[in-house]
Amino acid sequence: MNHALPLRTPEERQAFCEAYFAAVGAKCVYQAEAYREFELPRDVDKELTDRPYYWLWVEQTGQVVPPTVLRLAFTEDAAERENVRLRTEALASPSYQQLSDLEKQFFRPPVSELMTLGSFRFEKLMASVASRGRFASVRPADANAHRTVPWLMVNVRITRRCDLNEQSLWSVGCCLVNRQVVDGFYDAVHRLAMVPCPPRQLLSEARIGLQEAFTAVTQHVERRLRTEPHAWAREAQRRLDDELRQVCTYYQSLLPEVTEEERTILQVERTKKERDVRERYTPRLEVEPVQLALVGLLERI
Amino acid sequence: MHSHAHHRLPDPSVLAPTPPPVPVPIQWMESARLEAFQAFLASTADQAPPAASWTLFTLCHTALRAQLAAGFERLLALDHLVGFTPLPHQVETAERVIREMRGRAILADEVGLGKTIEAGLVIKEYMLRGLVKKALILVPASLVLQWTRELTEKFKIRCFVQRNAWSWAEHDVVIASLDTAKREPHRTQVLNQAWDLVVVDEAHKLKNPRSRNWLLVNQIPNKYMLLLTATPVQNNLRELHALITLLKPGELGSSQRFASEFLITPRAPRDPETLRQRLTQVMVRNRRRDGATNLPKRHVEVVKLTLSDAERVFYNRVNDFLRDEYRQRSEARVSMLPLITLQREICSSPYAAMVTLEKMMKRARDEELRSSLARLIQLGEQVQTYTKVEKVLDILAGLQDKCVIFTEYRATQDFLLYMLRRQGITAVPFRGGFGRGKKDWMQDLFARKVQVLVATESGGEGINLQFCHHMINFDLPWNPMRLEQRIGRIHRLGQTHEVYIYNLSTVDTIEAHIVELLLEKIRMFELVIGELDYIVGDRRVSARQFEKRILDLAMTSEDEQQFRARLFALGEALFQPGQRSNKERHSP
After folding, report:
1. Measured on CA atoms in the order B435, B436, B441, B447, is the torsion positive or negative?
2. Which of A50, B478, B482, B571 is the most buried (most CB within 10 A)?
């Protein structure tokens, strides 16, 4: 279902970026079709631009520096169009006119950045989102915090892996009152209008601890994984066994023909090859909690 | 990354029957998350977290879904390419390599079909899926920069050119030359890294399992391995065994077992079908004739020439001399090599033949031989007009465009350069012996300044002349593979113009027949090259053997007619796909 993956279109990426910059308090200072300019607050600047020494210098020497402006294009057309504009504007600006001839030669007008999957800036932005969006504490906008039932939401990334992998994202909720465990929790919550809420208010109704709820979630996830079809794993295991057998037969067939000294070398080589084969084919199931949230829900959900 | 098996407490609330045992242990990663979450809650306890925190949480969820290594219906890498679209055969190849070959494969596309792109797709896909972090790319020194550019620009893979002994450990994706990697102190460093993926370009350099190249690559730790070569087999089927053993030790048994089970002789497979079947499991080969690409059309023209009287006399006398020598050498069982050379040179140009005649003269002990050689040299000196050179000047005058001229011989090359310059045509040489710097320089000069490049080296690694649309084959290599490699220099991916190839052929010479055999009868360009260099059943590709065979025919035929007939019979037998009778083999 690759086409259903998010952020595959320029429109989605643009909406994503706009939501991000609004959330982190970066002002949009210019906009055109499929193009935005954002002025970065210092903390965001540090996360999105890769220049630790610059910041060290700025902070050690107490410099006052102008905020960075990101010029983001979401389509190639927009990038081209805005580059022309940026260039024209730069060359017409008074600061350019004051440059000496030599300086003019080395002058480079600003250019836009194309925001595509895997581009430097977009990757940085994703990383920033990943660290800023790990945790939350929320309740429905229209509910009184004291009348909600607290839940722990755990979003886990499941990786089924042999020489190839497949991942999925599960969201499991555990009720902190009655220990009920529910799948597909994020989707249910996401549909409601939520607002941040002080955790202590939500937790006042809790009967069981977070650790206990978390354990219930892990047990639930493991139970679900155990009932999944495991054909892929059995097949990977079979490939692993076949390959190991082949390596074994191969090296055994070489042994009679070599000297004692070569034999030792071959044994070492064989151990390494077997290790590589295991590393490659051994089926694994990895579970990684990636997001956690405290969610208050109205008693009747 | 910390991971440990999560403690599994018996759960009294579950009374359901125990499901069948999981064949796979479950690993919980980064289990410290809960503590971090509790710390977050404590830090904000009585206050609501910032208003935007929920937005960021939902954006994070979107990002997580976007970065998921989803199912394998389609390459994830395709969504991460900007500014270029891989060709269908390249995408298909990358998919097959990952899905069916499990990341261990020989990529053996014909020259110019984009093996680098295929490898790039595979590398990118594994990196996006988090299966490859550390990758080693071993290429000839001359291709290091090209690889770096391709991976950075097309695939946005952050790769580093190896600079010193620390580079291997320091960077995740390292591009280096095989020659450096096999020397200390690098070798130890290379072998000590846990590489996830190893790529070797020009992997035919690994055909000998006793070579230092092969021994090195065999020792490098790896999970996935790609071997790239346009010619996985050059002379001998055992070369294939060497490559496959790197990918899958034991796949074809030990070298001895392979020989006894699969081969009649090193060049003849016992059961081509079975062997081919086994090969398709580890090797992908795309060919032009399969419609792998839509390159612009290639026009091939045979330019027929008639020798001048003086040239004709010289040619005939040299031929008579060759026949005599051939007979004597056959009886004495001495090497035919100088004769093959002379035979081919006389086809190239009188000038080229003169060099060899003079060499033979110097070495000759026998008085009679010396005097006949002296007479030949004298005849050669009387040649005043050079028909082929005149024709080249003609063609160039008509083109008014850049042109590459190929010849097999240094002597011809020098002579051509001299003649071109005398006519005021700018030209630079290119040959295998040049260092990399000089090669680049000449290529650059040709691209920017001069009209003609006169080259002796066809297989020259990494010389790409897409900006040129004309090629003159002053003489033809007798090995069809080499001819295809020549043409691949200009007729390759990236060529946007139709290309024109002129093959010079002098009437009533051996060359004329060979040109006809290679080009007209067999239509090798469009059709047979795929069969010809196809790996299995390829006892014929040995260039030496092929040349020797032609010399044999030329020297033992009664007349032109008989030679022609026998040559074509040879062609039929050699190039007919699927029909490979053993009786066609001849004693070496």
Report:
1. positive
2. B478
Interchain contact B41–A (C-beta under 8 A): yes
Mean pLDDT in consecutive groups of 10 residues from the start of chain B, 588 residues: 39 44 77 85 90 95 93 85 85 94 92 88 96 96 88 92 94 95 94 96 89 95 94 72 90 79 71 75 79 68 87 89 85 79 83 87 84 89 87 90 90 91 91 78 88 76 78 80 72 78 84 68 38 37 64 79 79 51 33
Within an 8 Å CB–CB cutoff, is residue A208 touching chain B? no
- Domain range for B143: 76-290
Shared domain for A293 and A168, answered yes or no, is yes
Name A170's bridge partners. A156
- Count of domains forming chain A: 2
Write out the residue range of the structural domain in which residue A216 sits.
Answer: 135-301
3-class DSSP state of B299: strand
The answer to whether residue B56 sits within a structural domain is no
Tell me what pLDDT residue B19 has.
46
Min distance B244 CA to chain A CA atoms (Å)? 13
Last residue of some domain: B290, B322, B348?
B290
Q: Which of A28, A67, A73 is nearest to A48 (CA)?
A: A67
| A122 and A167 share one domain | no
Per-residue tokens: B191: 């072998």
Q: Does the beta-carbon distance from B70 to A136 stay under 8 Å?
A: no
Number of domains making up chain B: 3
Q: Would an 8 Å CB–CB cutoff place B251 in contact with chain A?
A: yes
Residues B462 and B400 in one domain: yes
Of the residues A131, A147, A181, the one at which a domain ends: A131
Q: Are B174 and B136 within 8 A, CB to CB?
A: yes
Contact call for A288 and B29, based on CB within 8 A: yes
- pLDDT at position A199: 93
Give, as one character, the DSSP assignment of residue B526: I
Chain-chain contact of A198 with B44 (C-beta, under 8 angstroms): yes
Return the CA Rg of chain A: 28
**Distance (Å, whole) CA B487 – CA B296:** 13
Which two structure tokens, joined as six digits, stand for A19?
């939501």
- Please return the burial class of B2, using the count of CB atoms within 10 Å of its CB with bins 0-12, 13-18 and 19+: exposed
Q: Where among B353, B381, B409 does a domain terminate?
A: B381
| Cβ pair B561, B328 in contact under 8 A | no
What are the structure tokens assigned to A83, written together?
């580059």
